[in-house]
Amino acid sequence: MKQMRLLFIFFTGTLMFFCHCALSYAFPIPDTGQTTCYDSSGNTISCAGTGQDGAYIINPMSYTDNGDGTVTDKVTGLMWQQQGDGTQRTWSDAGTYCSNLSLGGHSDWRLPATMELLSIVDYGIYPGPTIDATFFPNAYDDWYWSSTAYSYNAATVWDVGFDGGTNYNDVASTTDYVRCVRGGQASASFRDNANGTVTDTGTGLRWQQGEGGLMTWPNALSYCNGLGLGGYSDWRLPNVKELESLIDFTSYGPAINTTFFPDAQPLIYLSSTTTAFATNSALDVSFYDGLIDGFNSKAESGYVRCVRAGGSPFGDVPGGSTFASYIEVIYNNGITLGCGNGDYCPSQDVTRDQMAAFIIRALYGEIFTCTGGVACSTTTPVFSDVLPTDPGEATFFPYIQKLSELQITTLTGAYLPGEDVSRGQMAAFLVRALQVRAGQPTESFTYTQTPYFSDVPGGSTFFKYVQRLKDLGITTVTGTYNVNQIVTRDQMAAFIARAFLGMN
């Protein structure tokens, strides 16, 4: 049993560590599923005020059974194979199996990365399998292959145990079960907030940049609960999924981005998640290589890095709202400044001048020039109704000038900056902008010829853009696209986050 091997390795100190290569993921991290709290002896206690994993429900796991042998994770947007075929395979054969899989009308299946597999583990279930049996029937309380191989030793690969939610590095020639996935992947992106905190702009989590030090599990919970840092007092000890999301799968010793976390230790860090199969222990993560262990007693010491759930920066966007994570992410990436007075105005219509600002910031941030390196704010106006001397449009003038230069807008004469943007127009803006980012002509792209939507037939002005948007997974609707419907600012946040930031 691999859990026993983990126990032996940690207590003998003979573990060989290797660099493992995979990507971090720009999506909200699903909750662990743990809702019960325990004292250091493993006894059940009230969760109130403990700071333990069970005291918080953040991004609760939620799925849709698509009725075609697939399940969609409504938090991450990933689509999963609902049931495997019950065959254990070598790592190479597992990858081949997924790449050859045709299921639910899709053929772009792949072997999931470690963090993706961990995202569907339910740490509130024991005995296993530690996964929602309603949506994933006939799962095994055993080990499943990930796509994540050690770069130091190509013969060794990560797998994830659905008998407890730990992971392990195993030789690729052994056999494990397989569950395939489809959906986008994106690299993690951090922002130094210059106040002792770092924001992961993909997950929306804000992290303590420095080191909390070495302490026992009860002391770690108390330390994070009492931390005041960066103007915030709602810090907590991260759950195991959140902690694992910090692992840099391209490095080891320490396996974390040392540019943003320069004092990180290549040692054990504590999570707030109790081990379901040994409730006097807590799950921890080795920041040497990302190994999750569940056998360390809560009386033993580990290092600590506190976290807070970024939270919405805008007063009119509740943290639990459908679009909160998208709005948070585009704010963290400097794509929106809100609508003033600390608000985002999520239900307000998007106007054409706002659209220009969203897109140019998504492409360049605030540092860009127009043709020949001239400041866009001083160039000759392209449009008669967008002038740098117009108090209402002066703010948007540079963005609109750049939009025209890039041929993301093809209008001449008037731009109509205050006019609302329809979903069809938005599709054209986004697709052309993505072509610019790829270094390709704005109109030179392929798209599916068979119409996806009943209201966007082949002869429609916006047909090719809407088709391309669907091909890229930036729109997820089916049946009707509502091509003439006006886009609201909360919807725009979702489209921008999916198109430019890799969110699902």
Share of residues in helices = 10-25%
Number of folding domains? 3
Provide a count of the helices: 11
Order of SSEs, N→C? HEEEEEEHHEEEEEEEEHHEEEEEHHHHHH
Query: How far apart lie the N and C ends?
Result: 35 Å
> Largest sheet, if any?
4 strands, antiparallel
Structural class: alpha+beta
Question: Uncertain segments of ≥5 residues (pLDDT<50)?
Answer: 3-25
Mean pLDDT: 89
- Biggest sheet, spatial arrangement of strands: 1-7-8-9
Bulk shape: globular
Beta-strand level of the residues, as a percent range? 5-15%
The total of beta strands comes to: 19
Q: What is Rg?
A: 24 Å
Report on the architecture of this protein.
The protein is of the alpha+beta class. The protein folds into three domains: 2-182, no CATH class; 190-247 and 254-308, Mannose-Binding Protein A, subunit A (Mannose-Binding Protein A, Chain A, Roll), CATH 3.10.100.10; 324-501, no CATH class. It contains eleven helices and 19 strands. The strands form six sheets. It has a four-stranded antiparallel sheet. β11 and β12 (197-200) form a beta hairpin. α7 (352-364) packs across α8 and α9 crosses α10 (463-471). The chain starts with a helix and ends with a helix. Residues 3-25 have low confidence and may be disordered.
